[in-house]
Amino acid sequence: MLIAAIAIAFVAAAPPPDPDAAGFGKRACAWAGDLASSARADDFERELFRDPNQLPPSLHAIGAALAPTCAHRAESGDFVVGLAKANARRLSDAGAPWTRVDMATLLAYQLVDPVRFAQDAKFRPRVLPLVPREMDGSISHALRERQMKELNETIGIDFDSAETIELAWQLVPRASALRKFGSAPLRIPDDYASPIEATVFVLPSRFFTPVAVETFLTAQREATPGRRLVVITDDDMKNAVSEKLARSRIDWIDSFGRDFTPWPRDPFTVARRGDDSGVVFLVRPNLQEGREEDSNMARQIISGASDSLDRALGTMQWTVASTAFHNGQVLLTPDAAWITLHALEVRNLERMGRRAIPRKQFDTSKGIDDYLALSKKSIAELEKLYGRKVRVIHPLPESGKWAERKKLIDVIYGGADFDLDSLVTLVPGEDGKWTAFVADLSLDDELFRTTPDEEWSRFRSAYGIASSVDLPVALAEAQRTKRAKGLDAFVDLIAKSLEREGMTVERLPLLLVPVPLLADTATLKHRDFVVGWNNVVFERAGSRLRANAFATVLDSVDRDVVARFRAAGVDLQLLPPLVRSVILNGGYRCASNNVRRASP
After folding, report:
1. CA gap 391, 268 in Å, rounded
2. What is the value of pTM for the model shown?
3. pLDDT tens digits, one per residue of 368-379
C-alpha cells in the first residue's frame, strides 16, 4: 500500500505535457517512459478513476509515445495494456449492468487516443496489436462480448483484426484466417440434392423483434426436426429468445455487433470438397453496395461455430469465388444453372470498366452485339464455377433487325430489379419432366376478387399497411403501373421460353406492393416489394421433394399454392414470414443458406 501511495503521489506531481506546447512529441515520449518505469498500471488506473479529468490528456500523451521515433514506445505500449487490463478487471469485478460511461472509458483505454484513432490511419496500426492482450478468459464473458460489440460498432475495425481480438479474448473457438481453402476440386450441389444438413439464418435485433424470431424459429424447428439451425445474431436478440428456444437446439453464433443483413443467401455459396469430406464457403467477390460487411459472414460462421457444428460439417473452410455471381439470379438443377441476363451484369461491367451500363449501349446492333459478347465470356466463367452448363432462362436478342432486338432488350430489362428465384421455381418430376412455376401479375385480378375481406385485414396488419389505404383496391392499382406491366412482360417471356424447353409451365400470382402504402416508411428508400409464392428451398426426402417458403397470410391463396405444389410432387410447408425481410425484398430462400448432406 505504501509503494502504491508513493507511485500515485509521483504521478500526481508529474502531469502529462501540454499538447499545444512546442516539442510535445518528445515531452510525451519522456513522460510516458518515466511513467512506465516508475508506476504500476493498476495504481495509475485507480488514480485516473478518482480523477477522470486526467484520463484524456494522459492517454493522449501515451498515444504520442507510441510513435516509431519514441525510444519508450515498447514500454509505453505495455503500460497502456496494463491500464486497459486494470479497467477491465474493475468492471468485471463490479459486474453488470455497465453504464455507457463505463464502456466508453474502457474503449478509451483500448484505443489509447480515440479521436486520433478515428482520424489518423497511421495511428491505428500502433494500437490494434495491443488490444488482444487487454482482456482474457478471466474477465467476465458478458463484458468481453459487449466490448467486442463496442469495438465493431464504434470504430468498425477490419475483420482480421477483430477476429484476432475475439480469439485472444476467448470469444470464438478458432480463427477463420487459418481455414482459407487452397486449391482442389469443388462441387456445388444443385437445389434438390440430398437432405439439408444445416440452415443458416441471420436474425439481427435491428431488423426483427424477438417475437418474430421466436415464432419463425419455432415453426422452422417443427418443420425440420432433424436439421441443424445456425443463427447469427447479436447478444440482445440471443438473450431475449434463447431461453424460450432452448428446446429448438439452435446453434447460436454471435455477430459481435457486425452490420450483417438478414440475407445469407447472397454473400456466399456453399460448396463441398470434391471428395465430399467437408464444406467450403465460396464468398462472393462482387460486394453489394451498403452490404460490404456481409462479405465476412461466412468467416464469422467458421470462427464462431461450436466444435460440434464444425465437426458435423467436415471442418469448414472458405475462399473467394473465382468470378462474380448472384445467388438470387440462378436456379441450379443437376445439369444446368439457369440464369437471367441480369446475373451477368456485374461481371460485364467489370470488363467494361464502368459502374453502370451506358444509356446508349443498346441503341445500335453493334452495342447489343458487344454486350452479348461480354455475356458469353461471363457465362463461361460461371460454367467453370458451377461445374455445369449455364442456360439463360429467357431468349437473347442474338439476331434480327435492331428494332426487334431492342424491343426484346426492353422486355428483359422489365425484370431488372427482381431476383429470378422470386419469379420462377423449377420442380423436377419423377418422369424426368420439369414443372416451372412462373409468376403472373395478370392473375392478381382474380386474387383480388376471390380473397375474403378478413384475409386482407390480416394482410394489412401483418405488413403494416396504413389504415387509410383501401385494400385491395390500392394493390390492384399498383399492378397496372408501367413498372408492373414491364415485370409481367418479363415473366411472360420466361414462361414461353420454358414451354419451348418442354417444361410444364404453371402460373402463380405475384403482388407488387408499393412502399408508400405502408404506415411506417421512415427508413425505407426502395419503391416496392414482392409478395409472391416462389422463393422456395427444396430438399429430398426419400422419393419425394419437400420444401419451405414464407406464408403470405393470404391463407386461401397459400392453401391453393400448397395443393398445386403437391400435385407437382412437392410437399410444401409455408412458415410464418419474417415480414421485415419480405418488405426489404428478402423471401425465404434469400433469408437462408443451406448446407446439403454429402452424397451417399
Report:
1. 21
2. 0.94
3. 999 999 999 999
